[in-house]
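Internal ticket #5521
Category: modeling
Description: The requester needs a full-assembly model to guide mutagenesis choices. All entity lines are attached below as received. Residue total reported by intake: 436.
Assigned to: D.W.
Attached entities:
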Amino acid sequence: MTKEELTTTFEEIKGSLKSYILRVTASIQDAEDIVQDTYVKALEKIDTFRGDSSLKTWIFAISFNLAKDNLRVKKRWTENVTDICKEAAMSNRPFFQKAMEIRTTSPQGQFEIKEHIAFCFTCVSKSLPLEQHVCLLLKEVYEFKVKEIARITEISEAMVKYYLHTGRSKMVDVFQGRCALIHKEGVCHQCTELNGIFNPQQKAEEELVKIEMARKAESADKEHLFDLRMNIVKGIDPFESDAAELQLHHLEHNREVMEKYLEKNKD
Amino acid sequence: MKNGITLLMIMATITTLTAQNGRATTIKKTFNRSTSIGITIKADPAIVWTLLTNASDYSRWNSTIISLEGDIALGEKIHLKSTLDPKRTFKIKVKEFTPEEHMVWGDSKGNRVFTLTQNSDDTVNFHMSEKMGGLMFPLYAKYIPPFDEAFEQFAADLKREAEAIMTTK
């Protein structure tokens, strides 16, 4: 393995690595720092790469090692994160002003419901225990196999399966209970509410028909609906999408709110 | 003599096989009552053990548990609400704890023992028993509901969940 080969592969996977770290930390700055540190560490350790996993898996393992001690990675949010952050946002005028400015001036300031669905998953999945969160992301969003996840996380394959199963079960139930897009009794309508604010000319119903998960809400079972949700998340790069700047602004807001909330409620 | 030993070995084997069939058995005596169940699970013992020791996850997979609060670790106290007596919260202590092998919960009236034994064919034998008793036992014995059905459901739920986890690709 040469430094050039490593650099080439790193550049190819950098986007997915960065979005993965963002989803784990919920911090733009931490995601950028950890990705940079991963590259430096990989260069230092290049002689230890034996080829018994793919280079991508090896790089993700280095990244996981760097990320797991990060305080923001360790912090676990709550299932009702969107309720808590919504309440905080309602009384935060500068947050909305900045969001509106991004919406009107930035090429990455569009608001799309499916982008918000992906954003919502980033926030809600941070309520899972860390092992479940990481395994679920690596499998469902970044499409690693159980064996590869075991290598990345240094968790046995059996326990990776346990974390995947329990993490997925919990997320299926949380979204089934909360998300009004898939369940009539769902308490969270945030994606359509925000669509009304950022796209006042649009009709939410017309937008929802474009989203398979919403279309199949009544006919598909909750497992399949979760698969469809994962397809949406998979298809969105939070740093490169047309809504990236707006959603990242929102994510930073939510992280700050949750950090204060967790500090206040730590006992 | 030799025939006698052979017969004992056959009986022991039958007992072992019967104990792993997912059917509960109860032995009632004047001063105590014990219920036990065994079932063979095709799963890694680490998975079965984690299911048995993750308190907050119990009510998701185990239909006999309404809630289980606390940390299932040696010396810790846990608060259990079971479908056997939904209005009551049992305050029990984790008395013995050997990871992936053996665990005992209990209070002054009785103990529940969980045992895992790994087999050579990638299966694990799960065994659970509860013995209640004491000098005062005859006075309150009639108020304690039978455990058999709940034990069978517990074992079936554990098997179903652990084997489902093993099929994760």
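Resolution: model delivered.
Comment from assignee: The helical segments of chain B are 2-19, 45-53, 58-61, 137-140, 148-166.
Ticket closed.
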